[in-house]
Amino acid sequence: MTQRTVIVTGANSGIGKETAVALASQGDRVVIACRNPDRSAAALAEIRERSGGSVESVPLDLASFASVRAAAASITDRFDRVDVLVNNAGLVLSKRAVTEDGFEMTFGVNHLGPFLFTTLLHDLLAAAGNARVVTVASEAHFFAVGGLPWDDLQAVRFYNVWLTYGRSKLANILFTQELARRWASDGVVASSVHPGIVASNFAADGDTSTFMSTGLRLLKPMTRTPSQGADTSVWLATAEPGGDPTRSGTYWSSRRPGRLAPWARREVDGARLWTLSEELIATSS
Ligand SMILES: NC(=O)c1ccc[n+]([C@@H]2O[C@H](COP(=O)([O-])OP(=O)(O)OC[C@H]3O[C@@H](n4cnc5c(N)ncnc54)[C@H](OP(=O)(O)O)[C@@H]3O)[C@@H](O)[C@H]2O)c1
Which of 19, 34, 68, 251 is least enclosed, having the fewest CB within 10 Å? Predict the structure, then answer.
Protein backbone atom coordinates (compact mmCIF):
# COMPACT_ATOMS: atom_id res chain seq x y z
CA MET A 1 0.00 0.00 0.00
CA THR A 2 1.22 3.52 -0.80
CA GLN A 3 2.24 5.51 2.25
CA ARG A 4 -0.23 8.31 2.90
CA THR A 5 0.91 11.90 3.20
CA VAL A 6 -0.63 13.76 6.12
CA ILE A 7 -0.23 17.43 7.05
CA VAL A 8 -0.94 18.62 10.59
CA THR A 9 -0.85 22.34 11.37
CA GLY A 10 0.18 23.53 14.83
CA ALA A 11 1.75 20.14 15.55
CA ASN A 12 4.49 21.45 17.83
CA SER A 13 2.14 21.42 20.80
CA GLY A 14 -0.99 20.00 22.42
CA ILE A 15 -3.62 18.25 20.31
CA GLY A 16 -1.72 18.71 17.05
CA LYS A 17 1.45 17.05 18.36
CA GLU A 18 -0.51 14.04 19.61
CA THR A 19 -2.37 13.84 16.28
CA ALA A 20 0.99 13.77 14.49
CA VAL A 21 2.40 11.10 16.83
CA ALA A 22 -0.67 8.87 16.37
CA LEU A 23 -0.69 9.15 12.57
CA ALA A 24 3.09 8.70 12.20
CA SER A 25 2.91 5.67 14.54
CA GLN A 26 0.56 3.92 12.19
CA GLY A 27 2.69 4.43 9.13
CA ASP A 28 1.63 7.73 7.59
CA ARG A 29 4.28 10.16 6.36
CA VAL A 30 3.49 13.19 8.52
CA VAL A 31 4.41 16.77 7.71
CA ILE A 32 4.12 19.13 10.65
CA ALA A 33 3.37 22.73 9.71
CA CYS A 34 4.43 25.12 12.50
CA ARG A 35 5.26 28.79 12.86
CA ASN A 36 8.10 28.75 15.42
CA PRO A 37 11.32 27.16 14.07
CA ASP A 38 12.73 26.16 17.47
CA ARG A 39 9.47 24.61 18.71
CA SER A 40 9.01 22.95 15.34
CA ALA A 41 12.49 21.37 15.48
CA ALA A 42 11.93 20.13 19.04
CA ALA A 43 8.52 18.67 18.09
CA LEU A 44 9.96 17.03 14.98
CA ALA A 45 12.57 15.22 17.10
CA GLU A 46 10.00 14.22 19.73
CA ILE A 47 7.39 12.97 17.22
CA ARG A 48 10.06 10.95 15.36
CA GLU A 49 11.30 9.48 18.63
CA ARG A 50 7.86 8.58 19.99
CA SER A 51 6.37 7.27 16.73
CA GLY A 52 9.43 5.73 15.09
CA GLY A 53 7.79 6.99 11.89
CA SER A 54 8.46 9.28 9.00
CA VAL A 55 8.05 12.94 9.96
CA GLU A 56 9.01 16.13 8.13
CA SER A 57 8.29 19.80 8.69
CA VAL A 58 7.32 22.91 6.80
CA PRO A 59 7.31 26.47 8.18
CA LEU A 60 3.78 27.89 8.39
CA ASP A 61 2.59 31.09 10.01
CA LEU A 62 -1.16 31.30 9.52
CA ALA A 63 -1.04 35.02 10.34
CA SER A 64 0.78 35.67 7.06
CA PHE A 65 -0.66 34.90 3.62
CA ALA A 66 2.91 34.98 2.25
CA SER A 67 3.91 32.24 4.69
CA VAL A 68 0.77 30.22 3.88
CA ARG A 69 1.54 30.47 0.15
CA ALA A 70 5.18 29.51 0.70
CA ALA A 71 4.15 26.48 2.79
CA ALA A 72 1.65 25.33 0.16
CA ALA A 73 4.29 25.81 -2.57
CA SER A 74 6.85 23.79 -0.60
CA ILE A 75 4.34 20.95 -0.12
CA THR A 76 3.41 21.07 -3.81
CA ASP A 77 7.11 20.79 -4.73
CA ARG A 78 7.64 17.82 -2.44
CA PHE A 79 4.50 15.71 -2.91
CA ASP A 80 2.15 14.75 -5.70
CA ARG A 81 -0.82 14.17 -3.38
CA VAL A 82 -2.03 14.94 0.11
CA ASP A 83 -4.21 12.29 1.72
CA VAL A 84 -5.06 14.09 4.94
CA LEU A 85 -4.92 17.72 6.03
CA VAL A 86 -5.57 18.39 9.71
CA ASN A 87 -6.27 22.10 10.23
CA ASN A 88 -5.49 22.04 13.93
CA ALA A 89 -3.56 25.26 14.72
CA GLY A 90 -5.52 27.92 16.51
CA LEU A 91 -5.38 30.60 19.15
CA VAL A 92 -7.44 32.80 21.42
CA LEU A 93 -6.38 36.37 22.23
CA SER A 94 -7.47 38.59 25.07
CA LYS A 95 -6.66 41.77 23.11
CA ARG A 96 -7.41 42.57 19.49
CA ALA A 97 -4.40 42.17 17.23
CA VAL A 98 -3.97 42.06 13.46
CA THR A 99 -2.25 39.69 11.06
CA GLU A 100 0.53 40.67 8.68
CA ASP A 101 -2.21 41.28 6.08
CA GLY A 102 -4.28 43.49 8.37
CA PHE A 103 -7.03 41.10 9.44
CA GLU A 104 -8.20 40.57 13.02
CA MET A 105 -5.80 37.92 14.36
CA THR A 106 -8.25 35.29 15.68
CA PHE A 107 -10.32 35.34 12.49
CA GLY A 108 -7.10 35.45 10.45
CA VAL A 109 -5.24 32.58 12.13
CA ASN A 110 -8.23 30.36 12.91
CA HIS A 111 -10.13 30.84 9.66
CA LEU A 112 -8.56 32.90 6.82
CA GLY A 113 -5.10 31.28 7.00
CA PRO A 114 -6.47 27.70 7.06
CA PHE A 115 -8.98 28.63 4.33
CA LEU A 116 -6.17 29.82 2.04
CA PHE A 117 -3.91 26.88 2.95
CA THR A 118 -6.65 24.33 2.24
CA THR A 119 -7.74 25.87 -1.04
CA LEU A 120 -4.11 26.10 -2.24
CA LEU A 121 -3.79 22.37 -1.55
CA HIS A 122 -6.96 21.55 -3.50
CA ASP A 123 -5.23 19.83 -6.42
CA LEU A 124 -3.05 17.66 -4.17
CA LEU A 125 -6.08 16.69 -2.07
CA ALA A 126 -8.10 15.89 -5.17
CA ALA A 127 -5.18 13.80 -6.48
CA ALA A 128 -5.52 11.52 -3.45
CA GLY A 129 -9.00 10.55 -4.63
CA ASN A 130 -10.24 9.97 -1.10
CA ALA A 131 -8.69 12.79 0.92
CA ARG A 132 -9.74 13.96 4.36
CA VAL A 133 -9.75 17.54 5.63
CA VAL A 134 -10.22 17.60 9.37
CA THR A 135 -10.63 21.04 10.95
CA VAL A 136 -10.42 21.42 14.71
CA ALA A 137 -13.35 23.64 15.67
CA SER A 138 -14.96 23.88 19.12
CA GLU A 139 -18.14 23.82 21.12
CA ALA A 140 -17.19 27.46 21.71
CA HIS A 141 -19.03 28.18 18.44
CA PHE A 142 -22.08 28.44 20.72
CA PHE A 143 -20.61 31.77 21.96
CA ALA A 144 -21.17 33.21 18.48
CA VAL A 145 -24.84 33.83 19.26
CA GLY A 146 -26.79 34.68 16.12
CA GLY A 147 -23.96 33.81 13.75
CA LEU A 148 -21.14 35.71 12.05
CA PRO A 149 -21.28 39.53 12.21
CA TRP A 150 -21.09 40.21 8.48
CA ASP A 151 -20.73 43.98 8.97
CA ASP A 152 -17.93 43.64 11.57
CA LEU A 153 -16.08 40.40 10.82
CA GLN A 154 -12.79 42.06 11.75
CA ALA A 155 -14.14 43.02 15.18
CA VAL A 156 -13.25 46.66 14.68
CA ARG A 157 -16.37 48.07 16.34
CA PHE A 158 -16.48 45.52 19.16
CA TYR A 159 -13.93 42.99 20.42
CA ASN A 160 -14.58 40.37 23.05
CA VAL A 161 -12.14 37.51 23.46
CA TRP A 162 -14.56 34.58 23.69
CA LEU A 163 -17.10 36.03 21.27
CA THR A 164 -14.37 36.52 18.69
CA TYR A 165 -12.91 33.06 19.35
CA GLY A 166 -16.39 31.50 19.15
CA ARG A 167 -17.01 33.20 15.83
CA SER A 168 -13.73 31.89 14.43
CA LYS A 169 -14.71 28.36 15.48
CA LEU A 170 -18.16 28.85 13.91
CA ALA A 171 -16.28 29.83 10.75
CA ASN A 172 -14.40 26.47 10.97
CA ILE A 173 -17.72 24.60 11.01
CA LEU A 174 -19.31 26.61 8.18
CA PHE A 175 -16.12 26.30 6.13
CA THR A 176 -16.18 22.50 6.59
CA GLN A 177 -19.81 22.26 5.48
CA GLU A 178 -19.17 24.38 2.40
CA LEU A 179 -15.97 22.46 1.58
CA ALA A 180 -17.99 19.23 1.72
CA ARG A 181 -20.47 20.65 -0.79
CA ARG A 182 -17.90 22.15 -3.14
CA TRP A 183 -15.33 19.34 -3.19
CA ALA A 184 -17.59 16.30 -3.03
CA SER A 185 -16.88 15.48 -6.67
CA ASP A 186 -13.13 15.44 -5.87
CA GLY A 187 -13.68 12.70 -3.31
CA VAL A 188 -12.66 15.00 -0.44
CA VAL A 189 -14.33 14.28 2.91
CA ALA A 190 -14.45 17.33 5.18
CA SER A 191 -15.06 17.10 8.93
CA SER A 192 -14.97 19.49 11.86
CA VAL A 193 -14.25 18.44 15.42
CA HIS A 194 -14.75 19.51 19.00
CA PRO A 195 -11.78 17.95 20.82
CA GLY A 196 -13.21 18.45 24.32
CA ILE A 197 -11.68 20.72 26.95
CA VAL A 198 -8.03 19.81 26.66
CA ALA A 199 -5.10 20.56 28.96
CA SER A 200 -2.72 21.91 26.34
CA ASN A 201 -0.82 25.18 25.91
CA PHE A 202 -4.04 26.72 24.65
CA ALA A 203 -4.60 30.17 26.22
CA ALA A 204 -1.70 29.46 28.54
CA ASP A 205 1.29 30.83 26.68
CA GLY A 206 0.77 34.54 27.11
CA ASP A 207 -1.88 34.85 24.41
CA THR A 208 -4.54 35.65 26.97
CA SER A 209 -4.86 37.56 30.22
CA THR A 210 -3.53 36.11 33.48
CA PHE A 211 -7.12 35.83 34.70
CA MET A 212 -8.13 33.60 31.80
CA SER A 213 -5.02 31.47 31.70
CA THR A 214 -5.22 30.95 35.48
CA GLY A 215 -8.88 29.95 35.11
CA LEU A 216 -7.97 27.45 32.41
CA ARG A 217 -5.14 26.07 34.55
CA LEU A 218 -7.61 25.54 37.40
CA LEU A 219 -9.82 23.57 35.02
CA LYS A 220 -6.93 21.29 34.08
CA PRO A 221 -7.77 18.45 36.51
CA MET A 222 -11.16 18.13 34.77
CA THR A 223 -9.79 18.22 31.27
CA ARG A 224 -8.74 15.67 28.67
CA THR A 225 -5.14 14.99 27.86
CA PRO A 226 -3.89 16.21 24.46
CA SER A 227 -3.83 12.60 23.33
CA GLN A 228 -7.50 12.17 24.27
CA GLY A 229 -8.21 15.49 22.54
CA ALA A 230 -6.60 14.15 19.36
CA ASP A 231 -8.67 10.96 19.35
CA THR A 232 -11.58 12.10 17.17
CA SER A 233 -9.29 13.85 14.65
CA VAL A 234 -7.21 10.68 14.31
CA TRP A 235 -10.34 8.53 14.02
CA LEU A 236 -11.62 10.75 11.19
CA ALA A 237 -8.22 10.87 9.48
CA THR A 238 -7.98 7.08 9.40
CA ALA A 239 -11.59 5.99 8.81
CA GLU A 240 -12.20 3.45 6.07
CA PRO A 241 -14.13 4.83 3.08
CA GLY A 242 -17.90 4.47 3.25
CA GLY A 243 -18.29 4.33 7.03
CA ASP A 244 -20.04 6.79 9.32
CA PRO A 245 -16.97 9.02 9.87
CA THR A 246 -16.77 9.69 6.14
CA ARG A 247 -20.11 11.52 6.12
CA SER A 248 -18.73 14.74 4.70
CA GLY A 249 -19.55 18.08 6.31
CA THR A 250 -20.28 16.59 9.74
CA TYR A 251 -19.23 18.15 13.06
CA TRP A 252 -17.94 15.51 15.49
CA SER A 253 -17.34 15.27 19.21
CA SER A 254 -16.02 12.12 20.94
CA ARG A 255 -16.48 10.13 17.71
CA ARG A 256 -20.17 11.07 17.52
CA PRO A 257 -21.99 13.83 15.62
CA GLY A 258 -21.69 16.89 17.86
CA ARG A 259 -24.35 19.31 18.98
CA LEU A 260 -24.59 22.25 16.60
CA ALA A 261 -25.90 25.72 17.43
CA PRO A 262 -28.71 26.87 15.10
CA TRP A 263 -26.33 29.46 13.57
CA ALA A 264 -23.95 26.63 12.60
CA ARG A 265 -26.55 25.01 10.37
CA ARG A 266 -27.13 27.74 7.79
CA GLU A 267 -26.00 26.62 4.38
CA VAL A 268 -26.31 30.15 3.08
CA ASP A 269 -23.77 31.37 5.66
CA GLY A 270 -21.22 28.74 4.60
CA ALA A 271 -21.52 29.85 0.98
CA ARG A 272 -21.30 33.53 1.96
CA LEU A 273 -18.24 32.97 4.16
CA TRP A 274 -16.46 31.09 1.38
CA THR A 275 -17.02 33.88 -1.18
CA LEU A 276 -16.14 36.59 1.31
CA SER A 277 -12.95 34.79 2.35
CA GLU A 278 -11.88 34.58 -1.29
CA GLU A 279 -12.59 38.29 -1.73
CA LEU A 280 -10.73 39.31 1.45
CA ILE A 281 -7.67 37.31 0.43
CA ALA A 282 -7.79 38.65 -3.14
CA THR A 283 -8.04 42.28 -2.01
CA SER A 284 -5.00 41.92 0.25
CA SER A 285 -2.69 40.56 -2.44
N1 LIG B 1 -7.53 23.07 24.38
C2 LIG B 1 -8.85 23.09 24.32
O3 LIG B 1 -9.55 22.95 25.37
C4 LIG B 1 -9.57 23.24 23.00
C5 LIG B 1 -10.97 23.13 22.99
C6 LIG B 1 -11.63 23.26 21.76
C7 LIG B 1 -10.90 23.49 20.60
N8 LIG B 1 -9.53 23.61 20.66
C9 LIG B 1 -8.81 23.84 19.42
O10 LIG B 1 -7.79 22.88 19.30
C11 LIG B 1 -6.76 23.36 18.43
C12 LIG B 1 -5.41 23.02 19.02
O13 LIG B 1 -5.25 23.70 20.24
P14 LIG B 1 -4.46 23.10 21.49
O15 LIG B 1 -5.45 22.98 22.59
O16 LIG B 1 -3.63 21.95 21.11
O17 LIG B 1 -3.55 24.39 21.85
P18 LIG B 1 -1.98 24.65 21.78
O19 LIG B 1 -1.27 23.61 22.58
O20 LIG B 1 -1.81 26.08 22.17
O21 LIG B 1 -1.64 24.45 20.24
C22 LIG B 1 -2.02 25.42 19.30
C23 LIG B 1 -1.11 25.30 18.11
O24 LIG B 1 -1.49 26.31 17.16
C25 LIG B 1 -0.30 26.96 16.74
N26 LIG B 1 -0.51 28.31 16.23
C27 LIG B 1 -0.98 29.39 16.88
N28 LIG B 1 -0.92 30.46 16.08
C29 LIG B 1 -0.39 30.05 14.90
C30 LIG B 1 -0.05 30.70 13.69
N31 LIG B 1 -0.18 32.02 13.51
N32 LIG B 1 0.46 29.95 12.68
C33 LIG B 1 0.66 28.63 12.83
N34 LIG B 1 0.40 27.97 13.97
C35 LIG B 1 -0.13 28.68 14.99
C36 LIG B 1 0.57 26.98 17.99
O37 LIG B 1 1.91 27.29 17.66
P38 LIG B 1 2.88 27.99 18.75
O39 LIG B 1 3.35 26.90 19.66
O40 LIG B 1 3.97 28.58 17.90
O41 LIG B 1 2.06 29.03 19.46
C42 LIG B 1 0.36 25.56 18.46
O43 LIG B 1 1.16 24.68 17.73
C44 LIG B 1 -7.04 24.86 18.26
O45 LIG B 1 -7.59 25.07 16.97
C46 LIG B 1 -8.07 25.17 19.33
O47 LIG B 1 -8.93 26.22 18.95
C48 LIG B 1 -8.85 23.48 21.83
Answer: 251
pLDDT score recorded for residue 203: 81
Instruction: Indicate which residues carry an active-site annotation.
Output: 165
Q: How does pLDDT run across 160-175, given as a tens digit for each residue?
A: 999 999 999 999 999 9
> For ligand 1, is residue 13 a contact (CB within 6 Å)?
yes
Which atom belonging to ligand 1 lies closest to the Cα atom of 105?
31
Q: How far is the CA of 53 from the centre of ligand 1 (A)?
A: 23
Ligand 1 contact via 89 beta carbon (within 6 Å): yes
Taking only the tens place, the pLDDT of each residue in 29-81 is 999 999 999 999 999 999 999 999 999 999 999 999 999 999 999 999 999 99
For the stretch 133-157, pLDDT in tens is 999 999 999 999 999 999 999 999 9
Whether the predicted model's global pTM rises above the 0.90 cut = yes
Chain centre distance of CA 284 = 22
Domains of the chain: 5-284 (3.40.50.720)
